[in-house]
Amino acid sequence: MSWQPENAPKLTRKQLSQARVIARGQKIRAIERLMMEYGGDGKGWVKKSSQPFYWDDHLVEIHWYEHPVVGRFEEKVKQLD
């Protein structure tokens, strides 16, 4: 289950530094849309995930897309429990 509530947790620097890459470049299902909507070349895009943590009594991860030149976009909270 994924959602983006208004009061979603913000990622800390530590969480960002511990993020893992889920998919890179053409392995990202939404790569064409990302390039059209935000720009950047396909090779630079990565989909990342935070380490699991508890928020609002649920085990969650935050997923997002990132490009080194364009920035970080479309954060969403993924519930794991």
Write the layout of secondary structure elements.
Elements: E1 2-3, H1 13-17, E2 20-24, H2 31-38, E3 46-49, E4 53-55, E5 58-67, E6 71-79
Descriptive account of the structure:
This protein is of the alpha+beta class. It has one domain. Helix content is 16%, strand content 41%. The chain has 2 helices and 6 strands, in the order βαβαββββ. Strands 1, 2, 3, 4, 5 and 6 form a 6-stranded antiparallel beta sheet that branches. The termini are close together. The mean pLDDT is 92.
List keywords for this structure.
single chain; 81 residues; alpha+beta; six-stranded antiparallel beta sheet; 2 helices; 41% strand; elongated
Task: Give a nutshell description of this structure.
This protein is α+β, with helices and mostly antiparallel strands and 81 residues long. It is built from two helices and six strands, in the order βαβαββββ.
Q: Any idea what the shape is?
A: elongated
Instruction: Specify the structural class.
Output: alpha+beta
Q: What gyration radius follows from the Cα positions, in whole Å? A: 13 Å
User: How would a textbook summarize the main sheet?
Assistant: 6 strands, antiparallel
Distance between the termini: 9 Å
Number of helices: 2
Mean pLDDT score, rounded? 92
